[in-house]
Each structure stands twice: as C-alpha cells, then as structure tokens.
Design goal:
alpha/beta; binds zinc ion
Length: 240
C-alpha cells in the first residue's frame, strides 16, 4: 500500500491541493498528516477543513498549538505575533478547540508519527543533525518514524547516517531504524520552493520524496491581500 505523508502545510491552500492531487495520481490509498496545518500563509481555515474532512491520522504542530491556544503574544517577535493573531482571528472557536485537542504522537500501521521529536514532543526541538536525532531514537519503538518541523526533507538513520532527501527512491533496510522528515507542503526551507511530501510504499519498503510546482503567485497575492507581513510571501520564492 502507498501512504502519503505530508505536513507543515502552513495554510498554503494551493500547495496542499497540488500535493493531494499528486498523491492520488501516484496511487496513494492512505494519507497521514504530520502537523502545522496553520500559520504563516493565508488559508488556515480552508486547509484545516480539508484535513478534517479527509479524516486521516494527524498530529499537532507547534503552530497548531499556538493557534488553538490563547497564550499572550507579548513575548513573541512582532512579525510572528502579528501573523499568529491574524491566524487566530480566521478560525472559529470550534476549529481552535480541534487544534488544541490534537494528539502529539500516534502510531499508524507499523510506524510512528510526531511533529518534532519523540523524546519531548511538546518542547518542539528541531532535529538538524545526527546528534539531535539520537535523543529521538531512544524513544522510537517502531522501525520508522515520520516527522516534520524543520521543513527540510531528510532521512536520519540510527547510528551516524543522515541523508538529504534522495531524489531516487530510498529503500528501508531490515534491522535499521529511521527518523524521516517528510518535508514541507506549504513553506519548504531547503532552498527549493516546490511543495514537498513523501510516499511510503509499505510492500516494497520504499520511501520517495515528491517535489511539485504549484501556483505560488496566488499564494503570495493572498498573503499580501490579507495584510500579513510581506516577508512571508518573499520567503516562499526563496524556499527558506
Ligand atoms: Zn512548521
């Protein structure tokens, strides 16, 4: 069975629709969302409703937590605070309650999903190298765990190997443990602006990373029209 793993959508409706259409074309029968449905871009409510309607397994991201909570914005940097307040204002109380109640960690089939790391999922640590990945592996009891959060697609293998998302299909080896970042749908940060998600073929034990062009101009126009900070539109082109 082919499973689509996608996260860090960040309210980018054009990128989300492109990814879901591609996953269908690729023959994916099942979908798993790795969190951060909202934040940064201009369609939080629409993206959230698509995910809810799909009824797929989903875990909470830090932006979902921020948008669903009502902690004070005073200590945040002004751009982030402005964007977060805007996002909260777009969502109904019921939508925010849904975000607040999302699970942090789930097991799906024979793998685990988490937005940040399994060792402290609510602290939102970023895994950028093999040392960061080590603490996660101590708490990973399945061969594979998919995550997001850094917006950089990457494969961490327990021990000392780290691979940037390979363009070719990646084959899982028996006896090794993998912590796999599926990449970001709505705000990639690896220098490639195209929407990213992963496909796990459970029969072949293969992982592939998909990169897709989408209508970025529409996304950027919506950000500006909403009065969100310009920087959020610019960074999409840069893929940072
Ligand atoms: Zn994110």
């Amino acid at each position: 069975m082919k499973i689509a793993l996608f996260g860090d959508i960040h309210a980018n409706l054009e990128a989300l629709e492109t990814v879901l259409a591609d996953a269908k074309d690729q023959g994916c029968e099942s979908y798993v969302c790795l969190g951060d449905i909202v934040g940064y871009n201009a369609n939080p409510s629409e993206c959230l409703e698509i995910i809810r309607e799909m009824g797929c397994p989903v875990v909470k991201g830090n932006h979902d937590e921020d948008a669903g909570g009502d902690h004070s914005l005073e200590m945040m940097n002004p751009v982030a605070a402005e964007a977060l307040q805007w996002t909260r204002d777009q969502l109904t109380d019921e939508q925010r309650e849904y975000l607040a109640k999302m699970r942090m960690v789930r097991q799906v089939n024979d793998f685990t999903i988490v937005h940040s790391t399994l060792d402290q999922p609510n602290i939102w640590n970023y895994v950028t190298n093999k040392f960061d990945a080590m603490s996660n592996f101590s708490y990973q009891f399945t061969q594979v765990c998919f995550h997001g959060h850094t917006h950089v697609p990457r494969v961490f293998v327990r021990g000392d190997k780290v691979y940037d998302a390979p363009s070719e299909t990646f084959i899982l080896e028996e006896g090794l443990k993998y912590f796999i970042n599926a990449g970001s749908v709505g705000q990639p940060r690896d220098g490639d602006w195209r929407a990213c998600y992963s496909i796990y073929d459970t029969d072949k034990k293969e992982i592939s990373f998909r990169r897709l062009e989408y209508d970025i101009e529409t996304t950027q126009k919506k950000i500006l029209a909403a009065g969100l900070p310009d920087a959020l539109a610019k960074r999409l082109t840069a893929g940072r």
